[in-house]
Amino acid sequence: MSDGLSEQIFFIIFACVVLLFLAYEAIRWILKILFKKNLSPDIIERHLFKRYHQNPTLSPIMHLDWQAEGTCNPAAYMDDTGKVHIIYRAVGNDGISRLGYAASPDGFVFEDRTPYPVFSMQNPARYGEPREKTFNPLLYPSGGSWGGCEDPRMVAIDDRIYVSFSVFGGWNFVRLAVTSIKKEDFLAKKWDWTPPMFLSPAGEINKNWVLFPEKINGKFAILHSISPKPQIDYVERLESLDNGAQKIKSQFGQKVPRDTWDTWVRGVGPAPVKTEKGWLVLYHATSKEEPHKYKVGAMLLDLNDPTQIIARSPSALLLPDKWYENDWKPGIVYVCGAVIKDEQLLVYYGGGDKHICVAETNLENLLSWLQNHGVENL
Among 43, 276, 328, 330, which residue carries the largest CB count within 10 Å? Predict the structure, then answer.
């Protein structure tokens, strides 16, 4: 074959590759336009979570030292009677985070509230020293806490309630841990927790890991990353992670910004919610335009293979726009709990790292909207 003919073939192939690339980009651009066209303000508004009109539903109680500085980031569980129980993060005057408890028959008004913490680390002093609680973007550590157990998530598996949480002892010691309690003891407020076990390995910073609310193929399933795609590890016994027999290697976030409202995906919110159309996962993200605001989105994962994303919300569903979401640390909605009650999805979140709030949306409408309008990577 002559050199001239070889060069012609090369340029033809090169031109075809360039044309294919341009065609791909053109199709992607057209889809973006069509997609955004469908997202008129009224369509987005109909699917935003509706806040409870009497938010915040819980706030710090000044005369209780263990929660005087903040009550936020509640995990949630609904029992067979429809009563909603929350385990929430409380920040005390000493700067230590502990876990409090409250319950509500309707999921909105939490009058049943213990005057004492229901769980704390055995040696909280080693996780931090008392500091003055003033917001400073440069000095601000871990939601205003100087140590202890933070940001719980809660699931019921078989006859036990599992509460996972972050153990914070300074930015050189941030690990995920889990404790559990018999369901009957939990409902009776007999706080007989098991000693906490570490889920994440030492020497790494991990905060947003959650347990699935049921075993998958007989194993505990741990969702520990959703960016750039979901990562799940399975263990027969949680003790194997605590004693180092098994180790989870989590991928630490995305490498490049997304060209969407969720420019940077920060992590999972509550434990996945099982629905007929897939595992519903709420997550936190920030945008390029407003990097200081934590916003909440949703994604739907395949029931049989939850590493596969069926759809992702094309817009944020909950934004920090109310006073109680900016009262102390500005621009924060942080969802840690979700339950399905009377066909409504109730989400429980911390506002401004200080208050506990509730929002809701119709579950079926949300799932249909995700399927019809949601995409994975546009």
Answer: 328
Contact (CB, 8 A) for 142 and 123: no
- The structure tokens listed for 262 are 């969720």
Task: Give CA–CA dist 81/239, Å, rounded.
Answer: 32
Amino acid code (one letter) for 156: A
Domain edges within the chain: 1-38, 39-373
Would you say 370 and 300 are in contact if contact means Cβ atoms under 8 Å apart?
A: yes
306 Cβ partners below 8 Å, 6+ apart?
A: 212, 216, 221, 223, 230, 232, 272, 279
Write out the two tokens for 355.
């208050």
Strands 220-225 and 231-235: antiparallel
Torsion sign across C-alpha atoms 344, 348, 351, 355: positive
Give the CB-side neighbour count of residue 303, counting CA atoms within 13 A. Answer: 6
For domain 39-373, the CATH class is: mainly beta
d(CA 348, CA 22): 45
Q: Which of 377, 357, 78 is nearest to 256 (CA)?
A: 377
Kindly report, residue by residue over 120-162, the tens digit of the pLDDT: 986 544 544 444 444 444 444 445 567 889 999 999 999 999 9
The residue among 66, 127, 50, 51 whose CA lies nearest residue 101 is 66
Cα gap 117→89, rounded to integer Å: 9
At 267-318, the pLDDT tens digits run 999 999 999 999 999 999 999 999 999 999 999 999 999 999 999 999 999 9
Cα 41 to Cα 43: distance, rounded to the nearest angstrom:
5
